[in-house]
Design goal:
The chain is mostly beta strands. Helix content is about 10%, strand content about 40%. Strand 82 and strand 83 (about 1005-1010) form a beta hairpin. The longest helix has 28 residues, at about 680-705. It is elongated. This is Low-density lipoprotein receptor-related protein 4.
């Protein structure tokens, strides 16, 4: 009867507390939070209630004193409570404005905000009074956070996040450095860890349903809690032992629990009661006529021990006290220590995770994990979005991530490029895939390191390593694939397809990660399925449907499909789930990103972007949603040399990328030089092997003497009619046999972008220009002996290469420094510049070895065109000069038999030709949707690369249709160069008898010029070269390029070159670099252009190697004379030019019956030698075929020095963002960067 009367009295006091009451003061108090029960005649505010004094005294009193602090507004809602006795602070969570706040219990009613951005479900607070840290649980974001109780120390830290589903109660034992919490989840449990969330241990996970509030008895080392579902009060020791149910109160709704001595104080939300128990019995109960929440016993006995170690440590942000090790400074999320021993913190360069990213227009926007509850005041696109580039309009639309490497992957629809971006300040995006179609979905298999994406243009699903290496098609012939998600644990990939109505319906499908066992998940009941998301915590698949206006969920365990959220006004596109929140992008009137609570199926926030592009893909960068998993394709487990993907029954299977073949062992990938007529060669060997063995001794000497001729024949057998193709973003060089079409990758570890390429059949070497490393490199066609042969300065880059394998020269355009140069293929570090004036953007270059000409294209703005000069740069003349400046002349190709030059124009989108005799220009093809880049002529066809196509194009060189040729799944093709033995140049170099020490450069009329390498001067004898400085050239040493006309280098050009005729030597004569139009051959430069390159340093490497010397003496020891016939420009008839002997000889048949006659003995020797070589080829081929998988193969690596993408930046003013809902709270990530914790709205109370 006494307790009933006391409850009624207490209720009356509480009902009148909005009129009178006293503030809570610093003394022993039982404090609880409560929210009013709505009454028709009154509206009351939430309050913090207290009964002051020792409970042993006021429990026996008939009228206990009740004090309160009222919220400043009726919408406030106090939830969990905590306190710090020594500092006289009371803490609470506020569910409406979503804050952690405090008040100083000295009579003041001014509040301080410690943390902003919680959800409304913060049900547990615990204070470490020794370290002065506050911990709290968040039941919607499913984490436990720590922040300092001191207002002067900003910062927060997520201490527990993984494997939390619904954390509620919380308690701390500072002396033992232990943190305890309850988690409802699918498997309810009580856990503990140290104060930083480490060394986690599950104490109890049985006989629990909804464990709520926790409290520790520090004297007896006991843990007490209430279970709101079981209506129980329970206990165990601090190790989880001795679990016991103390009390059962049927029908109750327990929430909070507090301890004082032997008393347990419990709040009952369901009945609005405050109940008092001992471990043995129930003592009393009070009806509150309100809904009580958290409860604490504010008393010094419940916080034993004191320490000022963390105060004295004076850490800038956080401090944790260890009784054995003392105080230790910590930095909060988004900060790192200035040094290992520092007390100060500096902003981290890395993004804080978990966080949300979404692509919209030309930007990617980023918000912290608590986006649903953060303040949206004063936000702009420039503060939340990055990578914005309105000028280039990249059009980002697809995202995925790699949590382990802190890497964001994104697709630019404008450049058709997949990029990878380290998420740290100052980082730059690096292209890993290019030349794709429209990539609408991406997903990373983080276990195997494979990146999957859908290509709507190619109607395919593609895969590569996450660095961009080893791209291949997984599934093709799809309809219109959009979203994709992969599940490494199940070995499955899931994707959506819009179909093509009415014939092909939209669908959601799945298959193994290698594309096998494809099957439909849902078809017919989906209209426009878009992106997908897999929640690995619940093992559920989600996808959006923009025409059905809903989001569906597939439980991957049960197979059940349900609609979890729908809104007829929403056009759902991107989707993500973060704990209890659903996030999506809307592409319609609410263009932007939106959030809803899954438990209540109600929207909580929307951020709308007006007039800044259409919102597209969305990801939540959550490391916990890429959990540690293992399968046979794990990167540290698989034996596959390129790609490993799970197939049927989750068995691993190795795959190779384009141009590679899987070896017999099933693991290694290899590539071969393109081979033809292999069957014929094998038959010949079988019939004649006995004869060959008999004659081998007789002809061995002749074989050695004819090594060059034989080697030329071998090259014909190996690479006849093969095109060398450079593929840009995949960064591979391919060989392609033209009949039949067969592609093989050149086994090279190419790390940067390659533009120009050409082939030397004498040494079987390729040369290519690396525009990122600013160098020219070489390697054999087998991918061996790769090395740099030319270095440029940081401004230099070569776009075009031309090999003259008769004269052993390599010509190159130097676009960055506006130069054209030449280097000696067979001599180390021998190069010079032959054209240095009146160039704007020299692009491609070709050589005519017999006539001594070079041709180059220039796509500059002022005077684009195609020019020709002698190989020493003299007698420059325009071959083609367009009548307008809108020309973008890219690749060029020369047909010496037909005396025709071909080129592609990327501005006019045309393929063109000009007859060098009649100067007649023809437009062979026009395609307004093309971006032609390179061209070459092989036989009767032209081969063209087009950046807008994923394949090579071919057309008859006389005109006709330009059609796809070969495979169609390149990324973007750059350079093309072909070699055909039947078209090989036949002739003897005019430099055979030359005494030039460095460079012999042919000219028209069978003459040549001696030139010295950069850094050398021609001596008085006109042949030898002497250094012009005492220093020697070393690798990557910067050497000055050509000087201006007024410099000593330019004015003494005659000392650098000597001209010789084809018949006999003449005295040295000066040779100037002249450039003429067809009407004039006098001036050295166009009068309207002034160009100087006097201070353009160019470097050249001096990697030491012994260059092979090629010689082809006749059987009697004399050089072979070869007569070369050609038709001079503008004349009829045939002129015979005496050939000049040189040690390098390569045959080219210009027409049947016009090659040099050989003696019968020589022919017989050559025939036998060829047979022996064929035997050797077959043996070597068989050996290589058997042991090919023992060879190592190069791997592409990412570009380390990009310069064309955008830095992450958070700059100044920008476009405003609008919101479709009001309210919100402050964003902790950004506020802590700029603002200290400050006072908030004052609480109120009245004196009694």
């Amino acid at each position: 009867m006494e307790s009933i009367l006391l409850g009624v009295l207490l209720s009356l006091v509480l009902l009148a507390s909005h009129i009178q009451g006293a503030a809570i003061t610093h003394e022993t108090n039982l404090v609880w939070a409560q929210t009013p029960i709505s009454l028709p005649f009154a509206r009351s505010n939430a309050r913090l209630m207290s009964i002051p004094g020792n409970p042993n005294k006021w429990m026996s009193a008939s009228k206990p004193t009740v004090n309160n602090i009222a919220a400043p507004h009726f919408t406030w809602g106090f939830r969990a409570l905590g306190f710090h006795w020594e500092d006289q602070l009371l803490f609470w969570s506020e569910g409406t404005n979503k804050k952690i706040q405090s008040v100083f219990l000295n009579g003041s009613l001014e509040t301080t905000t410690l943390f902003t951005g919680t959800s409304s479900e913060v049900h547990g607070i615990a204070v470490d009074w020794l370290s002065r840290n506050l911990y709290f649980t968040d039941g919607l974001y499913n984490w436990i956070m720590m922040t300092s109780t001191l207002p002067s120390r900003p910062g927060y830290k997520i201490v527990v996040q993984d494997d939390l589903q619904s954390p509620h109660g919380l308690a701390v034992h500072p002396a033992r450095m232990l943190l305890f919490w309850s988690d409802w989840g699918t498997r309810p449990k009580i856990e503990r860890s140290n104060l930083l969330g480490q060394d986690r241990k599950v104490l109890l996970d049985r006989q629990l349903v909804k464990p709520q509030g926790l409290v520790i008895d520090y004297a007896k080392n006991r843990l007490y809690w209430v279970d709101s579902f079981k209506c129980t009060i329970e206990m165990a020791d601090l190790n989880g032992k001795g679990h016991k149910i103390l009390h059962v109160a049927e029908g109750s709704g327990f929430f909070g629990i507090a301890l004082y001595g032997n008393y347990l104080f419990v709040t009952d939300k369901k009945h609005g009661r405050l109940d008092i128990y001992t471990p043995q019995t129930r003592v009393k109960g009070f009806g509150l006529s309100a809904e009580p929440w958290g409860i604490v016993m504010y008393d010094n006995s419940t916080q034993p021990g004191t320490s000022d170690a963390c105060v004295e440590k004076n850490c800038e942000q956080l401090c944790v006290y260890d009784a054995l090790l003392g105080a230790k400074c910590l930095c909060g999320e988004g900060y790192v220590p200035e040094d290992p021993e520092s007390k100060a913190c500096k902003p981290s360069e890395k993004f804080v995770h978990p966080s949300h990213f979404y692509a919209i227009g030309d930007s990617v926007c980023h918000y912290p994990a608590n986006m649903a509850d953060m303040s949206l005041d004063n936000l702009t696109l420039s503060t939340q979005c990055f990578l914005g580039d309105k000028q280039h309009s990249p059009g980002y639309q697809t995202l995925t991530y790699d949590a382990a490497e802190n890497m964001l992957y994104l697709f630019s629809n404008t450049s058709k490029t997949i990029l990878r971006l380290p998420l740290e300040l100052g980082a730059k995006a690096i292209a890993i895939e290019g030349g794709t179609g429209e990539v609408k979905g991406m997903s990373l298999d983080w276990v195997s390191g494979n990146l999957y994406w859908t290509d709507a243009t190619q109607r395919a699903i593609m895969v590569s390593k996450k660095t961009g290496k080893y791209q291949r098609v997984v599934l093709d012939r799809l309809s219109s694939p959009v979203g994709i998600a992969v599940h490494p644990g199940r070995g499955k990939m899931f994707w959506t397809d819009h179909g093509h109505l009415p014939m092909i319906k939209a669908s959601v499908e799945k298959a193994n990660l290698d594309g096998s066992e494809r099957e439909s998940i849902m078809s017919g009941h989906v209209w426009q399925p878009n992106h997908l998301f897999i929640d690995f915590k619940t093992d559920c698949l989600y996808w959006t449907d923009s025409l059905k206006h809903h989001v569906r969920k597939l439980d991957l365990t049960s197979g059940r499909i349900t609609v979890i959220y729908e809104d007829d006004e929403v056009k759902f596109y991107g989707v993500s789930v973060f704990n209890d929140f659903l996030i999506w992008t809307d592409t319609d009137t609410l263009n932007g990103v939106h959030m809803a609570r899954l438990d209540k199926k109600e929207k909580v926030r929307g951020i709308i972007h007006p007039n800044v592009g259409v919102a597209s893909d969305l990801i939540t960068f959550d490391p916990s949603n890429q959990p540690e998993q293992s399968n046979p394709c794990s990167e540290n487990v698989t034996s596959c040399s390129q790609l490993c993907m799970l197939s049927e029954q989750k068995l691993p299977k190795c795959f190779c990328s384009l141009g590679y073949t899987l070896a017999e062992d099933g693991f290694k990938c290899y590539t071969l030089v393109v081979v033809v007529v292999v069957v014929v060669v094998v038959v010949v060997v079988i019939l004649l092997h006995v004869l060959l063995l008999l004659v081998v001794v007789v002809i061995l000497l002749h074989v050695l003497l004819l090594l060059l001729v034989v080697k030329a024949v071998v090259v014909v057998v190996v690479v006849v009619a093969a095109a060398v193709v450079e593929e840009v973003v995949v960064r591979k060089i391919f060989q392609m046999n033209l009949s039949p079409t067969k592609v093989q990758a050149v086994d090279l570890d190419i790390t940067n972008m390659v533009i120009g390429i050409d082939y030397d059949p004498i040494s079987t070497k390729m040369f290519w220009s690396d525009t990122t490393a600013h160098e020219i490199r070489e390697a054999t066609i087998e991918g061996k002996f790769e090395r740099p042969v030319m270095y440029f300065n940081s401004s230099g880059m070569s776009d075009g290469l031309a090999v003259d394998y008769i004269n052993r020269l390599l010509f190159f355009t130097e676009t960055g420094n506006k130069l054209i140069g030449v280097l000696n293929i067979d001599k180390e570090n021998i190069y010079t510049y032959i054209v240095s004036e009146d160039l704007e953007q020299p692009r491609d270059i070709v050589a005519s070895p017999i006539k001594g000409y070079i041709y180059w294209s220039d796509w500059g703005d002022q005077s684009p065109g195609i020019e020709r000069s002698n190989m020493d740069g003299t007698n420059r003349t325009f071959v083609y000069k367009p009548s307008h400046k809108r020309a973008w002349i890219n690749g060029i190709a020369l047909d010496t038999d037909e005396q025709t030059l071909y080129w592609v124009d990327a501005a006019e989108d045309t393929v063109n030709s000009i007859n060098l005799d009649s100067m007649e220009v023809k437009v062979l093809w026009t395609d307004t949707r093309a971006h032609f880049f390179s061209i070459d002529v092989i036989g009767q066809y032209l081969y063209v690369s087009d950046w807008m196509k994923k394949y090579i194009l071919r057309m008859p060189k006389v005109g006709g249709d330009l059609v796809p040729f070969g495979i169609r799944n390149y990324s973007r093709v750059h350079g093309i160069r072909g070699y055909n033995q039947s078209e090989a140049f036949t002739g003897v170099s005019v430099c055979v008898s030359s005494k030039c020490e460095h460079l012999c450069l042919p000219k028209e009329g069978g003459r040549h010029t001696c030139r010295c390498a950069e850094g050398y001067l021609l001596s008085e004898d006109g042949f030898t070269c002497v250094t012009d400085s005492p220093s020697t050239t070393t690798k990557k040493q910067r050497i000055s390029g050509p000087s201006s006309p007024s410099s000593p280098r330019a004015s003494s050009l005659s000392s650098l070159s000597t001209e010789f005729s084809s018949s006999s030597s003449s005295s040295p004569s000066s040779s100037t670099s002249t450039k003429q139009t067809p009407a004039s051959r006098q001036s050295t430069a166009r009068p309207d252009v002034t160009a100087t390159v006097s201070k353009l340093p160019v470097s050249m490497g001096t990697t030491k190697r012994r260059s092979p010397t090629f010689s082809t003496p006749s059987p009697n020891g004399d050089n072979v004379d070869v007569v070369v016939s050609y038709v001079p420009q503008g004349r009829g008839g045939t002129t015979t030019v005496p050939a000049i002997h040189r040690n390098t000889t390569v045959a080219r048949s210009t027409s049947p019956g016009k090659s040099a006659a050989l003696s019968t003995v020589t022919v017989a020797i050559i025939a036998c030698s060829i047979l022996i070589i064929l035997v050797i080829i077959i043996v070597l081929f068989a050996y290589r075929k058997k042991y090919i998988y023992k060879f190592t193969h190069g791997k592409l690596v990412e570009d380390k020095s990009p310069s064309t993408y955008y830095q992450i930046a958070f700059n100044g003013q920008g476009d405003q963002v609008t919101f479709d809902s009001g309210g919100g709270i402050e964003n902790p990530t950004y506020d802590y960067l700029n603002q200290p914790k400050d006072a908030d709205t004052a609480l109120t109370t009245q004196a009694p």
